[in-house]
Amino acid sequence: MKTSYSRALVWSLIAAAFIGPGTVTTAAKAGSQGGWYYAPYVILAAGAGLLLMEMVARITLVSEQSLGQVLGERGRWLTIICFGAVLLGCMAYQAGNLLGALSGIQLLVPVNRLWVLLLGAAAFAVLWKGDTRIIARALSAIVVLMGLVFVISAFLLLFSGASLTGSSRVASATVIGLVGTTIVPYNFFLAAGLSKGQSLGEMRLGLVSSFLVGGSITLSILLVGSVATSFTSFADLARTLDASLGGMSKVVLGFGLFAAGFSSAVTAPLAAALAGRELLGRKDLALTNTSFGFRIIWGGVLAVGLLVACLELDIISVIIAAQVANGLLLPFIAAIVLVMANERVLLGERVNTWWQNTAGMLVAGFLAYKNFDLLLEKLMPSNQGFLPEILAAVYIIGIGWLISSRSNYSRASS
After folding, report:
1. Number of compact structural domains in the chain
2. CB atoms within 10 A of CB 393
3. What is the distance of C-alpha 306 from the center of its chain?
4. What are 87-146's pLDDT values in tens digits?
5. Residue 411 lies in a domain
6. What is the CATH number of the domain that holds 79?
7. Environment class of residue 167 by beta-carbon count within 10 Å: exposed (0-12), middle (13-18) or buried (19+)?
8. Is 21 contained in some domain?
9. Backbone φ and ψ of 294, nearest 5°
10. pTM for the whole thing?
11. Secondary structure percentages of the chain, helix, strand, coil, to 5
């Protein structure tokens, strides 16, 4: 029988899922902009991810239902909206995944942009077969090596006397991107699935270790990026690593980016299809891994990613935009999770405690504030006033009202 610790290790998949090209790009860009000034936001993102993922895993573990079943009982409309959010998130990530893998290859050998079509064909072949476990394990090992390179480099930089402040700038879009690359929407379904058969203690231990590892790697990339004179390409980042670890860093970064990008290019379409099967599938219409409907979903995500990747767009800008797009979805997702985690019909006495609700509301409110700040900055660049704060306050009040009404409804029903 597996020990409690070894059972918790399966949660390392969460960390592996969000350490991809998006994390490398966004954290390195944040480092070049503000260095240490972004560190609190990395810690906040990891803490917020841990808080929300624990709620989702606890809901499915205590209720003994899948996340799709839980959402479906609250209305078909909710499952459709949630699937739409996951689908859009996966589509946004996919172009960045393919371009990240291409950038890794370009660090090793000179190839042109159209090589992304070969990467797309390889991802199609893996997805069509339906069994991605072997390739995922092999590529994950390379990603771990890349993460280790960043951790060692950051450790050496801490004792080098460098300022590690970048250009001392902090931007709302970059903050949202850091959160969006840490709290990946489809990871909620992964967390719900991994919790099956585990105790609450094992689940929490696994999540804590997962976000501790993932957050440490993200923070290390941030610090390495802070000493880059500029970050307009992955070659800039490779030169920064060379200063710490020597010429082999470019090879490790190249293979690591390829592995992270290609594994994510397979994972994102697959995650969208799995979410579709769980959220949209009916009892009389099962979607298997080889069914037409299942393949249409992952095929659509792959096709959209390839289309965007083939356009003559800046690779770094595309990858960062994908993280920001996912960050914009998070206030909506956080609201749903917080409301469900307070329903006694689902959780009985395992509903959120007062501190979990307080922390969750603060996190959700902060995410909403940053999103409103970014959107209003684009719409009203000259005069925002206190409008972002007011809208964030309305958002928090709305969540509080939903939590209270659902909690009272749950008590009446029981």
Report:
1. 1
2. 14
3. 20
4. 888 888 898 889 999 999 998 888 888 899 999 999 998 888 766 566 666 666 777 778
5. no
6. 1.20.1730.10
7. middle
8. yes
9. -65, -45
10. 0.85
11. 80, 0, 20
